[in-house]
Each structure stands twice: as C-alpha cells, then as structure tokens.
Amino acid sequence: MKRFHVHMHVSDLDQSIAFYSRLFAAPPTRVEGDYAKWMLDDPRLNFAISTRGDKKGLDHLGFQVDDAHELAELKARAASADMALLDEGATTCCYARSEKHWVTDPEGVAWEHFHTLGNIPLFNEAAAPGQAAAACCPTAAPMDARMDVPTVAAPVAPAKPTAACCGPASTRTPNATSTAAAPCC
C-alpha cells in the first residue's frame, strides 16, 4: 500500500514540530537536530520537515511504498508517461536507507518514489566524517536541471548541484535511466 510523502523546509524546527504535532494530533515518529517525520495512518502520510534547504516551503512530493514490486510499478508508470527518470537505486538520505527514483512534473516539482529499507543514524552517508551531510537533491537544483533535460516551464538558470549529490552528470532524455547510485536523494 502506498503512503503519500511530503517534505517541507522550515526555518525553526522546534516551532514547526509544535505546530504540526497539534495539527496532526500526534507527535513526530522521528526527531533529529535538523529533521522530523510523522508517519500518519489517517490519512496515510509520510510528512517530513527539515532545516536543510535554502528556500523554505515545499521541497518535494512522493510516494513511499511497502515493497519492491510497488516501486517497480511506479517506475513503469513513470516510464510509460515519458517522464525523465533519475534512478538512484539503493541510497541513503533523510536518516533512512532506501531504494528510489525521481521524476519531475511539467511545472518542475520533484516527485520521489521510494521503498524504505531501514533507518540510519545520519541524514545521509555521503558526508565525510565530522562534516554535515549535504542537502538532498531536490534542494540543490530543479530536478530537470539536475538531469540535464529541458524544462517544460519557462527557462530558469539552474542552480549548480552540489558535488556530493545527484549522481553522474550525464545527458538524459525522457525514459532514460541511470543505474549508478547517487550518494543522496
């Protein structure tokens, strides 16, 4: 069964945790110094907030699935819809080890499809020891810019992705996939 996923960037984690805990009538299921997550059953929602992004507000949307079969189904749907696909495969991000891929809607909103395999103690494992982990890909640049495909919306000068993020810098076309694992979501 799928669970809808929303990731927001906030400026004050404690204030946002207090607000969303009241709004959802439940405390977060995971809290870190820069991150909080609610796994709600009514509605089925994985709602995450973090202080890692430069721009506050919506970072990305997505679907969390319960098994590899559902993830493959979402990947096939994206491919059949001629969506540019960034396949990260096995990766770590947001304090979890996951199998995932990304697509971008025509307005440039990143959609993450993922199957969580387990928790990890770090935001991601790509950061060097003693350094803060880089923000996940959706905060680094518009998804289409990261995948080197033209955007459908009005042209915008893309932000330069961080070196520790987004996998190989290859030219992608709709339905193109990368099997190389990127160090971050």
Quick recap:
The protein has one domain: 2,3-Dihydroxybiphenyl 1,2-Dioxygenase, domain 1, CATH 3.10.180.10. It is built from four helices and eight strands; from the N terminus they run βαββββαβββαα.
Description:
- Helix content is 18%, strand content 33%.
- It has helices spanning 13-24, 68-80, 137-140, 143-146, and strands at 3-9, 30-32, 35-41, 44-50, 57-65, 85-93, 96-104, 110-119.
- The longest helix has 13 residues, at 68-80.
- Mean pLDDT is 72; it is low at 130-135 and 137-185.
End-to-end Cα distance = 22 Å
Which series of helices and strands comes N to C? Answer: EHEEEEHEEEHH
CATH architecture: Roll
Main-sheet strand order equals 2-3-4-1-5-8-7-6
CATH class: Alpha Beta
Strand content: 25-35%
Helix content: 10-25%
* Uncertain regions spanning at least 5 consecutive residues: 130-135, 137-185
Largest sheet features: 8 strands, mixed
Mean pLDDT: 72
* Inertia-based shape: globular
Topology:
Elements: E1 3-9, H1 13-24, E2 30-32, E3 35-41, E4 44-50, E5 57-65, H2 68-80, E6 85-93, E7 96-104, E8 110-119, H3 137-140, H4 143-146
Parallel strand pairs: 1-4, 5-8
Antiparallel strand pairs: 1-5, 2-3, 3-4, 6-7, 7-8
